[in-house]
Amino acid sequence: MDAHLAKTDTYHLALSGRLTVTPSCEDIHVSESEPRTLIEAIRYFSDPDRAFRFVLDLRWPNGSVRCPRCDHDEVSFVSTRRIWKCKGCRKQFSLKVGTIFEDSPLGWDKWLPAVWLIANSKNSISSHELARMP
Ligand SMILES: [Zn+2]
After folding, report:
1. Is 83 a member of any domain?
2. At what angle do helices 108-120 and 7-16 cross, to 10 degrees?
3. Does residue 94 form part of some domain?
4. pLDDT for the residue numbered 23
5. Distance from the CA of 64 to the center of ligand 1, in angstroms?
6. Sorting pLDDT into bands at 50, 70 and 90, what band is 18?
7. Less packed terminus of the chain by CB within 10 Å, N or C?
């Protein structure tokens, strides 16, 4: 992996599963309150609403959610279940659909601290470091 890959790019990489580096002008909104340590990251992302908004901002930074299956932009959000219904293909999708996390039963509260750790580690992370996560 490119050593100069920015933190945001790493998040996008993890979320898209493709080596697509997005333009660096993109500014994520979490910088001020962004966690500094792993413990902070775990606390930070343990709030499901916060974790949800964090991923939402990364995936659709301009707020216009599109269907990952048919790319239709007319979707309705079901806030109680945090899913969308597409008016194009009439299927439902969650934030995970179309990402490498799609098939994982783990919630964002488990994934995001790991992604955060990778994005913030200066050297490449070892599996031992991940294993030591509390
Ligand atoms: Zn669709």
Report:
1. no
2. 140
3. no
4. 41
5. 14
6. very low
7. C
In a domain, 77, yes or no: no
Q: How remote is the CA of residue 96 from the centroid of ligand 1, in Å?
A: 14
Q: How far is the CA of 120 from the centre of ligand 1 (A)?
A: 34
pTM higher than 0.70: no
pLDDT of 14? 62
Domain count along the chain: 1
Residue 112 alpha carbon to ligand 1 centre in Å:
26
Structural domain boundaries enclosing 34: 7-66+99-131
Residue 43 located in a structural domain: yes
Beta-ladder partners of 78: 83
Beta pairing, strands 92-93 & 83-86: antiparallel
CA of 67 to the centre of ligand 1 (A): 5
